[in-house]
C-alpha cells in the first residue's frame, strides 16, 4: 500500500520567503523582489507572475525592466567600475571573503530557494551553493599570481546565464570577476532563480561589492547588456540560438566575450568489457534530470556490443528515483534522496514529451520509459513539469533528438559498425563541451580521442565543467570567445600585455591552453 507523503517541516515556499524578508529586507518587499542598480535596491520593473516547477504553485517572478532603465543601470555600473578597479587587491579580497562567509551562513536558505525556483533535489541544491563558495575561496586564496601584471577591464562584466546553476556558475563567476577588479552586472534568468540570486547579491552588496542585478527579456535588454559601449566583457551561458545572436553582436563590436553554448555531449562504447563501471555511473549521469551543460544524452555503441550494453544500462536506469524534492513520509524526516525532480517548467516537459512521441512515430525504438507510479508526489499536486526517464534507440534524422541536446532526462542510443561511424556520430552537433570514450585498449583511446570534437574527453569516466584550477571550454559551435577555469577565468576578465591572445575559440583564431 502506497504511503501518503507530506511536505517536510519548514520547507514551504512561504517559509523560505519569510526568511528572505528577514535576512535581506532591503532586497525583498512583500510579494516581490527588487532590482539592484546604482548601488540601490529599486522597486521598478514589471513583476511577472511565476510558478514553481515543483508543484505549479505561485512564487516570485522577475521584475522586468525596460530598455531605457537597463541602460541607466549599465551607466551606473560603469561609475562603480571606475571606482572599484582602483580598490587595492587586499581590500577586494577581504570583501569577497566576507561575502563568502555570509553565503555560508545562509547556505540552507539559498539551497531551499533553488529547490522551489528551479526544482533541484536538496542534495544537488546544496552542492550548487557549496561549489560556488568553495570555488571562489580557491581564487581568494591564490589571486595574486593570477592578476600579476594585469589590470581590470575598461568597463563592467555583463553576465547572462541560464537558470540551471545560479550559484556555482553565475554567482561564482560574478565574485571572481569582482575579485579581479571589475564591477559586475547580472541578468536574472527568465525561467527561474530570481530569489536565490537576489539573496546572494544582497549579501554581496552589503560587503561593498559593485554588483548590479536586473531582470528583463533578453531581446529588450540585449542592447544595454551586450552592445552598450560601457560593457567591458560579455559572459553568456545558454543555448546556441541566443548565443549566436550574442556572438554576432560582440564580434561586430570587438568586445571581450565568453560564450558557453550547448552541444550534444556523447559517450562512445567501442571494444569495451568493463560493464560494471558503466552500470555504476549511469544513475549519476541523470543528476538534475540531465539539465546541465555537461550531461551525456547520447550513447554511441558498437553494434556487436549492444546486447551487453543493454544488460549494463537498463538495470541502472530502472533504479532512478524521481519526485517532489521536499515530499517525505513524516514531516521531520530527512530530505528525500532523488536523482531528479521536475524539469524547469511544464512547457519544457511538454516539449520533451512531444519530441519523444514524434521520434517514436518516425521510427525510434523505445527501450525504457519510467513509470509515473514509481515517483513520489504529494496528494493532488500539479505534476505537469515532471518527465520520467526515457531511452530511445536510433532517433530519426528528422528528430531534434538526433542532433541536439534535449536538456531533459531523455537518452538516445545510436549503433555503429566502424570507427569512422563512431567518430561521425560522436561529432554530430559540430562541437561539444565534454565527451567520453569507453574502450579497453589505451592505444585505441589515444588514437580516437583527439578526433572527438569536445573540449574534454574522458576515458571511461564522465567529464565535468570542473572547479578551481580545471580549465573549461568547448569546440565548434559549443563555445565562442575566451576559455575559462583556473587562471583563465581571471585572464578572460583582465587586461594583459599589449597584443595578448587569450586561449579560446575566436572568429579569427583558436588557441588551446
UniProtKB/TrEMBL annotation:
<dbReference type="InterPro" id="IPR016163">
    <property type="entry name" value="Ald_DH_C"/>
</dbReference>
<dbReference type="Pfam" id="PF00171">
    <property type="entry name" value="Aldedh"/>
</dbReference>
<dbReference type="InterPro" id="IPR016162">
    <property type="entry name" value="Ald_DH_N"/>
</dbReference>
<dbReference type="InterPro" id="IPR015590">
    <property type="entry name" value="Aldehyde_DH_dom"/>
</dbReference>
<feature type="domain" description="Aldehyde dehydrogenase">
    <location>
        <begin position="44"/>
        <end position="488"/>
    </location>
</feature>
<dbReference type="InterPro" id="IPR016161">
    <property type="entry name" value="Ald_DH/histidinol_DH"/>
</dbReference>
<protein>
    <submittedName>
        <fullName>Aldehyde dehydrogenase family protein</fullName>
    </submittedName>
</protein>
<keyword id="KW-0560">Oxidoreductase</keyword>
<dbReference type="GO" id="GO:0016620">
    <property type="term" value="F:oxidoreductase activity, acting on the aldehyde or oxo group of donors, NAD or NADP as acceptor"/>
</dbReference>
Amino acid at each position: 500500500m502506497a504511503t501518503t507523503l507530506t511536505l517536510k517541516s519548514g520547507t514551504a515556499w512561504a517559509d523560505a520567503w519569510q526568511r528572505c524578508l528577514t535576512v535581506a529586507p532591503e532586497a525583498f518587499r512583500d510579494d516581490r523582489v527588487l532590482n539592484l542598480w546604482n548601488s540601490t535596491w529599486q522597486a521598478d520593473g514589471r513583476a511577472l507572475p511565476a510558478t514553481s516547477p515543483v508543484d505549479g504553485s505561485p512564487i516570485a517572478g522577475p521584475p522586468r525592466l525596460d530598455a531605457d532603465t537597463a541602460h541607466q543601470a549599465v551607466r551606473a555600473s560603469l561609475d562603480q567600475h571606475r571606482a572599484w578597479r582602483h580598490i587595492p587587491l587586499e581590500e577586494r579580497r577581504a570583501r569577497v571573503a566576507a561575502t563568502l562567509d555570509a553565503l555560508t551562513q545562509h547556505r540552507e536558505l539559498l539551497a531551499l530557494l533553488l529547490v522551489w525556483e528551479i526544482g533541484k533535489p536538496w542534495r544537488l541544491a546544496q552542492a550548487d551553493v557549496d561549489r560556488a563558495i568553495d570555488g571562489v575561496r580557491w581564487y581568494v586564496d591564490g589571486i595574486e599570481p593570477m592578476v600579476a601584471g594585469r589590470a581590470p577591464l575598461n568597463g563592467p562584466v555583463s553576465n547572462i546565464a541560464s537558470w540551471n546553476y545560479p550559484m556555482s556558475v553565475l554567482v561564482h563567476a560574478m565574485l571572481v570577476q569582482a575579485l579581479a577588479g571589475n564591477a559586475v552586472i547580472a541578468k536574472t534568468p527568465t525561467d527561474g532563480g530570481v530569489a536565490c540570486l537576489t539573496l546572494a547579491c544582497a549579501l554581496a552588496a552589503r560587503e561593498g561589492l559593485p554588483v548590479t542585478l536586473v531582470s528583463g527579456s533578453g531581446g529588450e535588454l540585449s542592447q544595454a547588456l551586450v552592445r552598450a559601449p560601457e560593457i567591458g566583457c560579455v559572459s553568456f551561458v545558454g543555448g546556441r540560438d541566443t548565443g549566436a545572436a550574442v556572438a554576432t553582436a560582440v564580434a561586430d563590436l570587438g568586445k571581450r566575450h565568453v560564450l558557453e553554448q550547448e552541444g550534444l555531449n556523447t559517450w562512445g562504447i567501442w571494444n569495451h568489457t568493463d560493464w560494471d563501471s558503466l552500470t555504476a555511473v549511469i544513475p549519476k549521469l541523470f543528476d538534475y534530470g540531465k539539465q546541465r551543460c555537461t550531461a551525456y544524452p547520447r550513447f554511441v555503441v558498437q553494434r556487436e556490443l549492444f546486447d551487453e550494453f543493454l544488460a549494463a544500462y537498463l538495470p541502472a536506469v530502472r533504479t532512478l528515483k524521481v519526485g517532489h524534492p521536499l515530499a517525505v513520509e513524516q514531516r521531520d524526516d530527512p530530505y528525500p534522496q532523488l536523482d531528479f525532480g521536475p524539469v524547469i517548467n511544464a512547457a519544457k516537459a511538454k516539449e520533451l514529451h512531444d519530441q519523444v512521441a514524434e521520434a517514436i512515430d518516425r521510427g525510434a525504438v523505445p527501450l525504457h520509459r519510467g513509470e509515473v507510479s514509481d515517483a513520489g508526489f504529494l496528494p493532488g499536486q500539479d505534476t505537469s513539469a515532471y518527465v520520467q526517464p526515457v531511452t530511445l534507440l536510433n532517433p530519426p534524422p528528422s528528430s531534434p533528438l538526433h542532433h541536439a541536446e534535449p536538456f531533459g532526462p531523455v537518452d538516445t542510443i545510436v549503433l555503429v559498425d566502424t570507427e569512422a561511424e563512431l567518430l561521425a556520430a560522436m561529432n554530430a552537433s559540430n562541437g561539444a563541451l565534454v565527451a567520453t570514450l569507453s574502450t579497453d585498449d589505451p592505444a585505441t583511446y589515444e588514437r580516437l580521442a583527439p578526433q572527438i570534437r569536445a573540449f574534454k574527453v574522458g576515458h571511461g569516466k564522465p567529464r565535468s565543467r570542473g572547479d578551481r584550477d580545471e580549465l573549461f571550454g568547448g569546440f565548434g559551435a559549443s563555445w565562442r570567445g575566451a576559455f575559462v577555469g583556473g587562471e583563465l577565468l581571471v585572464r578572460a576578465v583582465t587586461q594583459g600585455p599589449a597584443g595578448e591572445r587569450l586561449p579560446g575559440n575566436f572568429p579569427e583564431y583558436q588557441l588551446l591552453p
